[in-house]
Specification:
heterodimer, A: alpha/beta, five-stranded mixed beta sheet, two-stranded parallel ribbon, 5 helices, elongated, B: 185 residues, alpha/beta, 7 strands, 36% helix
Chain lengths: 160, 185
Amino acid sequence: MSKFGKKEKELPAISTASLPDIVLMLLFFFMVTSVMRENNVNVEQRLPQATQLTKLDDAQLVSYMYVGRPKDFRKYGRQPLVQINDVFIIAPTKDQFQRQIINFIESEKSKLKEYQRRKITVSLKVDSRAKMGIVSDIKLGLREADARKINYAAIQGSGR
Amino acid sequence: MAKRSVPEVSAGAMADISFLLLIFFLVTTQIPNEKGLPIMLPPKKDENNIQQIELNDRNVLTILVNSQNQLLVEREPLNVKDLKEKAIEFIDNRGRDKHLSDSPKEAVVSIKTDRGTNYKRYIEVMNAIQAAYNTLRAKHMGITPVEYLGYDEEKASASMKQKYADARKAYPLNISEAEQTSVGG
């Protein structure tokens, strides 16, 4: 009887047996909904806000270009640069700059299937503090490379 | 008392292992959130085949943005907030006002920026033009602009698809981007 009395005073421990199940459920949820990070972004990114956004249809057909101030400004300076595939485009002349964009698009196109190559979309992730000069240089390059579908990445917001 | 041959495996560590995996996935993955303003660039310049397209001045809405991010719309300064209304008025004029477009199909929006224009301002301008077209298309389809934005090709019914195509045809998005000025403005 003494055993019985002792038990009454103690609070029963909360069962943690279902904890693994809950965590596993969360884990599966994240595994299904998310994708692996493809490349590290080495530029500052504060995307502009817009209201009239459209979803990109096929993630496979999308290539990314990042524009913004380099995070490592001691090495690369404070001027906005273009990053593709983990490297910056550093070109002294406009022709070389275009050449590099064309090369990038060619390599991206070669990863796609033959019939998809025309549909390649380039998503420009440009920092909202960048100037239009660099953006228009990229656009000229993409025009030369014949990747005409482009997308200005933006986040949903009032735009103010 | 019954003899227990196999001792129970402790499941206490299971939660820890799962947490570890969960945190690993949280760190190494990202949730895809690809949204933006799509545009189509004009084709490459072809030296042999230069087309001279004559546009009536009334059918072109000229938007100039200088390096101070100020707008000049149809030779008059304008606040970017009023651009959407201005664009709607211009596109859906249908020959009423002789300074605005003949019909939505002929209307062209011309945007010219300076190299020093902020990208943010450019997106604001593009967004306003897109908003104007979306509002007009939504009106054409008889739905609200919010419903128009939520349109999904795969989920839409056949009649909705037809309406959507009609609206896009009735209000084609014609944006022309002029070559940039390099300094000042």
